[in-house]
Amino acid sequence: MTDQSRGGNGITENEKSIDRREQIIGVAIQLFATNGYHKTKISDIVREAGMAQGTFYWYFKSKESIALEIIQSGQAQILEVVSQGYRISSATVADAVASSEKLFEDLFSFSKDNRYLMELMIKGIDSEESIKHLIFETRIKIEEAFKNNVKRAMDLGILPERDPSIQAALLMSLMEGMLARWLFGPVTYESAVKEQSVNDLAKELVKFEFFGLLG
């Protein structure tokens, strides 16, 4: 790439294009989460992004196409975080607890940094069937990743033999419930959930995951 392709601030046209595209995506996620899919118009997205409407169509075919890309990208990122909990070798229960804490710390950190994306994933949106289906598929794949982690821990003798599908469903429900209350509420005035740090929340969830109410 030659210096002539760079602007005065050292940013290439390609980098500017990527920035504009990411800006449109960021605005769309926020508007879909706060206003709803059907109530959000392309004109709303470009106005909030400070761009002409033609700029939107340079990067995306339609409102549905940008929503699908948002969910597909989010799915890949979340699955990457959850899949890191897959164990390769045997370990003690204490090691498994520490690994699970790290997994949920990463997941909660990602959720905090991508609040609007997680709101779409957890709460869902009234949208086209293709988008609803992709959100549903994402949640199924996350639960499947939890199931693989649990089954692997059972195979290695870290966890007792139980139905991994049930364990994964319980874990998924626990995770979604805590995330929803932590990020979006509502919580009662005496609840301390929203004040929990990422680390504290992960520790409490994993303590319940391994030891239940007796933990």
Automatic annotation (TrEMBL):
Keywords: DNA-binding, Repressor
Occurrences of domain HTH tetR-type (ranges): 18-78
Pfam families reported for this sequence: TetR_N
GO molecular function terms listed in the Swiss-Prot or TrEMBL record: DNA binding
Keyword DNA-binding included in the entry's annotation: yes
DNA-binding region(s) in UniProt: 41-60
Protein name: TetR family transcriptional regulator
Organism: Peribacillus loiseleuriae
